[in-house]
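Folding problem:
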Amino acid sequence: MAREKKRRSNGRRSPLAAAALIGAGLMITGAVYAGTTAAFAATDTQTAATSTLTVEDGEKLFTANCATCHGLDLQGTANGPSLYGVGELAVEFQMSTGRMPLQMQGPQAPQKEPQFTEEQILAISSFVQAEAPGPTFPDEHVLDGGGDVANGA
């Protein structure tokens, strides 16, 4: 005796229809989310050019990341040298090349990927320059390329 197949009633859907419905719902939700985040990103008025960190922000970053070795007063500790007289130019160089902050003590700080953005680095270097002045960035007229090397200018 052959087994008789059960027939579906007219109101029931296939099990695949439920999966298709869930998939369509997820696709629509993802599209709406992507559209709204793109819209918010396009209307964000704060850009890298307009958002600048202050010397106070640099002090906070320095305290959180550099003061353990260089001291809260920039006088240095047994683990790091004093930053008096170093200036913003040296701080920017050491941080933008990834040499600072150090991963571990050694005779030479190895170059690695920077841990801070350029804006954060400039804020920390401005703080060091304000607290312990030293060499600063060259003026624009020095960097304009209009000098004469042969004549010492």
Observations:
- The chain has six helices and no strands.
- The domain at 55-138 is CATH 1.10.760.10 (Cytochrome Bc1 Complex; Chain D, domain 2).
- Confidence is low (pLDDT under 50) at residues 46-50.
- The radius of gyration is 30 Å.
